[in-house]
Amino acid sequence: RTYKRFMQCRLDIGWLCNPLLAIYESLIPTEEEKVKQKQLLALLEKLVNKEWPEARLYIYGSCGNSFGVRNSDIDVCLEIQSGDIDKSELLLKLADILQSDNLQDVKALTRARVPIVKLMDPVTGISCDICVNNMLAVVNTKLLRDYAQIDVRLRQLAYIVKHWAKSRAVNETYQGTLSSYAYVLMCIHFLQQRRPPILPCLQELDTTYSVIVDDVRCAYFDQVEKLINFGTRNKENIAQLVWSFFHYWAYQHDYTNTVISVRTGHLLSKQSKDWTRRIGNDRHLICIEDPFDTSHDLGRVVDKFSIRVLREEFERAAHIMQHDPNPCATLFEPF
Ligand code: ATP
Ligand code: MG
Q: How many C-beta atoms lie closer than 10 Å to residue 286's C-beta?
């Protein structure tokens, strides 16, 4: 009976769709902003190509993967055959080139984990980070963007989850919680696992796109326009999906033994990845396999303390979705 009531509750939350969708709509960047981003990229390309005609610039991260919220900074990757100059020198040179134009606050951060040049464009008001030869991030950005085109419920769910994570302060990798990239992978995996599935597993389908980046072969089916009806047999609405997502991570996920894997569309065992014990600082307390760099656990930033914070937040969210009369207000209450 309890289970029946539980399911009933989940089915009765259709009224929550509109308020959740209103939040989603309010987070989507405007067309005007997209135009400004392109404008800035074109300016940067012009400046970079004057010095390095062969170099190319790519947008990656949330501005390129279609999970970016309004007014966010843009992440740009410079692809360049650097020959014998090292990355730091390259970044200092890049900063020099950009400084001489009208760009503001140009700074080379050569000692960061991912070394970058930061800048602000006074014309568009957009801030930007430029990294060098981080092509795996460019390719995983394309993968996420391709998934987003298959079923709109992915974008809706991921925006809501990201907004929740930012509001609740569990989107801070330096404090041991998860990156936005990790949350989007959790959403994709979750939708691959619905029955009937809402998303396919693109890396298990025929290869139509294949590149080798840092010795890793990145291959998958990228003709996603052929898959736009993939999820239509599943009728779940966004309220049910948000409800189920939080319930999954609060009560159903087996943190002790399993790894979520977008690459395979399934759960894997920690044993099969040899992620069963702490190695150095990697504790594997929540395991999220990177779709291309499969030795990389995006949960490795999570420690003994932050795993509790995370799980308590999942439980809080699940509880609110089930019992709160005004879930949209409470769910996103600032921490
Ligand atoms: P936000 O809206 O919070 O800025 P974002 O999509 O830009 O979200 P980030 O977590 O800042 O997400 O990551 C930017 C990009 O860098 C990701 O899209 C991904 O391509 C790459 N990335 C981030 N973290 C990792 C990681 N741990 N391993 C591999 N790639 C990563
Ligand atoms: Mg970003």
A: 25
What CATH number should be reported for the domain whose range is 149-331? 1.10.1410.10
CATH for 31-136 is 3.30.460.10
Of residues 63 and 82, more confidence is placed in: 63
Query: Among 29, 39, 87, which Cα is nearest to 59's?
Result: 39
Q: Which residues of 52-69 are buried (b: 16+ CB within 10 A; e: fewer)?
A: beebebbbbbbbbbbbbb
169 CA to centre of ligand 1 in angstroms: 16
Interval 232-273: pLDDT, tens: 999 999 999 999 999 999 999 999 999 999 999 999 999 999
Q: From the CA of 138, which ligand is nearest?
A: 1
181 lines ligand 1 (CB under 6 A): yes
137 lines ligand 1 (CB under 6 A): yes
| Per-residue pLDDT tens digits for 156-179 | 999 999 999 999 999 999 999 999
Domain ranges of the chain: 31-136, 149-331
3-state secondary structure of 259: strand
Residue 165: HSE in the Cβ half-sphere, 13 Å Cα cutoff: 25
Interface predicted TM-score (ipTM) of this complex, two decimals = 0.93
pTM of the model as a whole: 0.96
37 lines ligand 1 (CB under 6 A): no
Ligand 1, atom 5, lies closest to the CA of: 62
Render pLDDT for 101-140 as a digit per residue (tens, 0 to 9): 889 999 999 999 899 999 999 999 999 999 999 999 999 9
